[in-house]
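Hello support,

Our group uses your service weekly, and this is the first time we've seen a run hang past the timeout. The protein is DNA repair protein RecN. I'm not sure whether the cause is the sequence or the server load. Input pasted verbatim:
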Amino acid sequence: MITALSIKNYALIERLSIDFSKGFSIITGETGAGKSIILGALGLVLGKRADLTSLKNKEEKCIIEAQFDISKYNLKAFFEANDLDYEEETIIRREILPSGKSRAFVNDSPVNLQELQDLGLFLIDIHSQQQTRELTDENVQFDIIDAIAANQDVILEYQALLKSYKSDKTKLNSLLKKLSESNKEKEYHAFLLNELQTAQLKSGEQEELESVFEKLNNVESIREAIDKSLAIANEEQFGILNNLKETKNAIQKIAAFAPEYQELLERINSLAIEFDDIAAEINRCSERIVFDPEQLEQTNQKLQLIYNLQKKHQVATVEELIEIQSQLESEVLELGNMDEAIALLNQTIAEKVDELDALATTIHNNRIEAVPVLSEKMIAILATLGMPNTRFNIDVQQTESYFANGKDELQFLFSANKGTDFGLLKKVASGGEMSRIMLAVKAILAQYSKLPTLIFDEIDTGVSGEIAIKMGEIMKGMSQTMQIFAITHLPQIAAKGDAHFKVSKSTVDEDTQSELRLLTEEERVVEIAQMLSGTIVSDSALNHAKALLN
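Update from on-call engineer: The timeout came from a worker crash unrelated to the input. Re-ran successfully.
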């Protein structure tokens, strides 16, 4: 329930702070006094969008703060899910800055408008005569029946299963589409894979083959260069090895005369050893040179195969070809597994369909049992509200389609008078009738579910006298288990309240301001008397007001 409301710099309100109590509260005031401003401020607290026109003083920010007692609302899970601090006395604050930006806080934690709107659904339910048209919405009608049928838990189970079922259907359709597309390319991919597998590619193979090819393809040039090198190294009279030997012998004769000669000898000795090894290696290379036309042809063919595959797949290395081969193998394997996955999904979906059908049947049967209960209660309440000939024909039919709340379609048919045919509620019920039907619905729902604070905004328009008294009694009865507000012009309803607030408008120094204040018992008598007789209050009006209050 809302326990306090504070408004600063909003519309015609400069500053307002008011406390509320549980039970049945009345709000009255002249047309244009500012009742809609109070509702507008509450709307901002509940997450409605705001703009700069909300500011009374465009240079200052607007602050609206509402305090709620939520100790009996079971909202801890909501607060945890939205990472908010849970307080039994929760404060919601909305700020509108002169720049036009808006901020919202729940227990001083910043929240976005969607979170505020979600929380607001649990806190306040505002109904005006215009909003009674919601009753013509099929989803709202189902909500009413399901509350009486106690379908909430089974519908939650159904919705969770339906979400899983739809997810599986999406996966299945995706697999089937992929399979269809893959089958078109299956043969070509298999051909490509076979081509790569036949090539038996290895990492680094291309460089090795290219090296072998160069050797085999240039064997004559290599042989000529090696033979020439061996001749230069080993020629008996002028060869490098012989010259190095003679140089070594010459320096060796003087090595003992000075350290630098000894160092030269060591270097020549090292050079001789190294070149001797080089000459031996050249000789081994010479021995290994064999012209093998068959190997050359095989090497050339393998290289041409690699080059052709690289060109086909638009890559430059064997490693990239091996990666493509791996991808093709995965795709072929996936195609093989896809049929199995599709079969498994079909089985899972069939099982979920059976479960959904069972839950939908439970929901349907519960609704069928709830319909006569709802009709009887509605007819009984509406009879007291001046609609004694009301009849309802609520038809619930199960279909083959899966909707968000079951498989049912609903027709909510209504007749207000004897001898008239049933018609759809939205087509045949007048505004006044819809207001009374809405009140009856809320009164019934209060018996079956935990409703938030209810604000009835002039839903009594078009009724008077004894009917107004009955409407007031119904609201009073509802207030025994919940907080009820009624914005009304009818003294019969105003007299039923536990607390009476008046909205008034005044002009101070050419500045118009609205205020809301709690009336004393004496002020309340005068207010109801004025509602009965107008601005000039007669003794009979005062007596009538006292009689209504008593």
